[in-house]
Amino acid sequence: MRWMNQPRSRITFRRHIYQILLLCLAVYVLVCLGCATLQRRMIYFPPHKTAEHVDWAAGDARLERWRNPAGQAIGMKRQAGKQPAAGRVLIVYGNGSWTVGCAHYVNDLQNVADLDVYLLEYPGYADRPGLPSQKSLFQAADEALATLDTNQPVYLLGESLGSGVAAYLAGTHPGQIAGLILLSPYDRLTSVAQERMPFLPVSLLLVDRFPSADYLRHFHGPLGVMVDGRDEVVPAKFGLRLYDGYDGPKRLWLFPNCQHVFIGEPPAQFWSEVLDFWRGK
User: What is the domain count for the chain?
Assistant: First the structure.
């Protein structure tokens, strides 16, 4: 009679397999929904500061508040010691940073040239009101660029996440940008996210995509790209992909033994090379 129980056993086994597959599918869908719902918490890590702390830190770094025509603080600035300046640099920083945390770029740039340097504060970062998103960062960047006096060349410095903001500005306002340098950039944020989470349909879930390569198709000025070979945050291949796809004047700085946003040569040498490249020397 044993043979009569075999079909029933097979049916039971198949039913168990089907139930397990349904459970796995349900868990997968829940994970996708969770990631989609919480994605901005996974992208943005804004430091929160009191206004008093920001003012104290800015003074210590020799920075002052940068305000829009309405008097609202939108970032920090430091004018060149010698006026008129040879140009203006707008800095858009990486995730987890803030304006005063990028004061070292101001020091390095002004050590090699008489430049006015401006640092955009993102909505929701430090003591600036708002919430970070691709839309809010892009709107803040548009406002910042419109606030700058453009009677001198305007250059962009984009760091990590901020490289996507810089690419957006260059592609959207190509006539106003004389050159840009992107540190540890990516071709699009979806590429980096898919690398991090290969089991998820990132291209369907991600809202803030920061498609740098698409924006740079509309920019034809000098593009500098700095890539670190041991970058674990934004793997080097994504910065190289962005560089290879750009068809305008470009220069690559590749530091094979460095990690994320690390300039592997003396700052004075690097920034002198960047400025010479921007100026076509």
Answer: 2
Same domain, 15 and 111: no
Long-range contact pairs involving 49-54 (C-beta distance under 8 Å, separation at least 24): 49/98, 49/126, 49/127, 50/127, 51/127, 53/127, 54/100, 54/126, 54/127
Inter-residue contact 88 to 39 (CB < 8 Å): no
- Structural domain that includes position 4: 1-43
The DSSP secondary-structure symbol of 87 reads E
Q: Residue 72 forms beta bridges with which residues?
A: none
Q: What is the pLDDT of residues 210-269, one digit of tens each?
A: 999 999 999 999 999 999 999 999 999 999 999 999 999 999 999 999 999 999 999 999
Mean pLDDT of 68-90: 95
Contact 251, 279 (CB under 8 A): no
Say what the pLDDT of residue 1 is. Answer: 43
pTM: 0.88
Q: Mean pLDDT, to the nearest integer, of 11-39?
A: 56
The alpha carbons of the chain give a radius of gyration, in whole angstroms, of 24
**208, 130: one domain:** yes
Contacts with 219 (C-beta within 8 Å, 6 or more apart), sequence order:
167, 170, 171, 174, 177, 180, 248
- Distance in angstroms (rounded) separating the CA atoms of residues 272 and 266: 10
Are residues 7 and 145 both part of a single domain? no
Rounded average pLDDT over 154-166: 98
Same domain, 118 and 194: yes
Amino acid identity for residue 120 in this structure: L
At 111, which CATH number? Answer: 3.40.50.1820
> Which alpha helices (H) appear in 113-160, and where do they start and end?
134-147
